Amino acid sequence: MPSSPFLHSALALAALAVIAPATGAQSTASATSTIAAVTLYPGSATVERVLQVPAGSTQAVFACLPAQLDARSLQVRSASNVRIGEVNVQTVERRIATGCADALDSRIRSAEDDLARAQAEVQALELAQTWLNTQAGAPAAKDGTANAQIGAKADALRRSALNTLTQLHQAQRTLEERQRALERVQAEQGSVQAAEVAVVRVTLATPSDADVRLTYQVRGPSWSPSYRARLDSSSAKVTLERLALVAQTTGEDWRGVALTLSTGQPLTTTQGPLPRPWTLDVPPPEPPRPQAEAAMAAMSADAMPAPAAPMLKTMRSAAAPLPSFEPVTTQGAYATQFALPQRVTVPSGGERVTLALGAQSLPVTLLARTAPALEPHAWLVAQLPTLTGDWPAGPIALERDNATVGQGRFDPQASDFERLGLSFGRDDRIAVRSEPVQELTSATGFMSGRSERSIERRFTVENRHPRAITVQVLDAAPVTQNAAIRVQSAYTPQPADTAWGGQPGLVLWQQELAAQASSAFTAKHTISHDKDVTVRERH
């Protein structure tokens, strides 16, 4: 095998196997291998090809494979009575490789031939028209028969010109149609074909007819999770559909393959970082340095970057294998695989294919959430029950009562997912009003040594739905971070939480509003401190 771990990057469209007899004359039989199965990982794929070989074959040649395949990952399997020898990998130019043409290449060549014929027809008619123009401009004969011939010649030229121009117009129309047909076929090809392809030669000893299976890994193909949530507000149910977006540019068209999505990452490193020794010592005393040198050393220390440990932690989290969906799940010790029940076609060239992986109907809790101090609107939120299984983070399309409301981010693994839920757009039947903030600053204490500021906010929420609905009202309260500043807060009614989501100062009122009912919410905050204290306020 080549010493390089990977072959040069390229694209491929087919594989050809050439079988040589074991003995006697070197007659050669050829067959085309087919892709039987593909296991797709985030960022790579394992492709399995199958080739039928007759008895007596001594060598199988798989040609026109992706040049970016990992030569170290090659595996060859066959029946127990077939002996497998060495496996050689070679990179060759595509233009001299055998068996790289497929049905699409034939269609492109046919479209190019049709275009060439249409161009030739147009050029021939243009040449005929040029000759007619030359004949029309030729001087007439000067003998006695000139007058009789002029009329006949003019009539013949007129008929010929009319016929030629009509045919030329139709030929130009045909030429345009042939050009568009070629462009459509070329668009199906996706990406530009690679200049190089890989050839794998397998030495065999086959006493009987058998199938030879070649498995290899290739970088580039990938899949990512996606979701679609449809809310039926009348029944308070969400239909959550799992999707997978698949794309690949290997040059091989995966047509009718058995596709399995996996959370593993076989081409990544197999070992994590190890801790370094932690030693303690007392450094020897440093010799005194000049003042200018010490100042420069201090500046260099200030400019040094922060320790890399948090960054490494973030990188490890980002590189963690994505969990995936199923319809048929195989839960392994270190990875989960999801086999699709149907045969799948994923063309090369980067075309994204969306695969449906099942749906669930879930009962949800509907509520209207508003932050009146920020905007006078309420938003319809569906809180989902605890989900079981693997649900990786991904984009989600949201629909409410058969109408699209937008897109968001779906991450059931997030710590605040159950609390925040899924938002399905504005609820215009919840009227929110925020009165002007009342603020008063005064001096208090003995000899007016303290400053006191009073801030009062009042909100009103009205339910215009024909049914009752749960309302959440959120507001921010001042939180002191210094003992020199004192804060007192009073609420009407008493909020359900003053540290919603574990965030001190995030106030939550939650109550059920009957149909056509309204409720008022008041928050009054008193901030006091010594007059000589400067307060830095952030909100």
From TrEMBL:
InterPro entries: CHP02231 (IPR011935), DUF4139 (IPR037291), DUF4140 (IPR025554). It comes from Comamonas nitrativorans. Residues 212-530 form the DUF4139 domain. The keyword Coiled coil applies. This is DUF4139 domain-containing protein. Transmembrane segments: none annotated. Residues 1-24 form the signal peptide. It comes from the Bacteria. Keywords: Coiled coil, Signal. Residues 38-127 form the DUF4140 domain. The lineage of its organism: Bacteria, Pseudomonadati, Pseudomonadota, Betaproteobacteria, Burkholderiales. Pfam families: DUF4139, DUF4140. Residues 101-128 form a coiled coil.
